[in-house]
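re: ur question from earlier - yeah i can do the single chain one, its not a big deal. heres the input i used so u can compare w yours
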Amino acid sequence: MSGLDKMKSRILEEADHSAKEIIDKANAEAEAVIKAAEEEARAEAEKISSKAERDAADYAKRVASSMDMRRKQAHLAAKQEVISHVLKSAYDTVMNLEVKEYFDMLEKLLERYVLPEEGEICFSAKDLGRMPEGFSGKVKTIAANKGGSLTLSDEARDIDGGFLLVYGGIEENCTIKAVFDAKREELSDQVNRLLFG
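and the output i got, formated as tokens:
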């Protein structure tokens, strides 16, 4: 199992644990509210006539329905919180990859976004400082394979990680944050399926 797989596994285990705690708490709160509503409905029913008893039963049904809706909303909010936590953890994991794994990932990202044009690739100061020897050659090869060319900019950009591609003054944002933001809905759906079936 690679380090990345171990990290993913650990993140999923942590997310499972967090999700269970949040869902258990939401269930306990929902049950307490439902119990209180049921007790209130019983007290009403004892004080009033048969018509009032029917009204109380109808009221209890409405309260139960409302509590069920609140419980569902609490579950949904808990799920969304867990999914956000998992995505943040995944982002942090990517940002803290070992140098080789990180730049291997950037190569794959570049293969996806490079255009068959002449352009420039820009990195953060951190990435420029830790860039492996020979990486700029790989960048040129990837660009050439797509029918273009890229020059490595010496000027550091204020980005979190990843890179910017500049073609004729137009920037293609390929930062890690931009990629996560662009794929957020798809990633959220995947995390939801993994954690909650």
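The radius of gyration is 27 Å. not sure if urs matches, ping me
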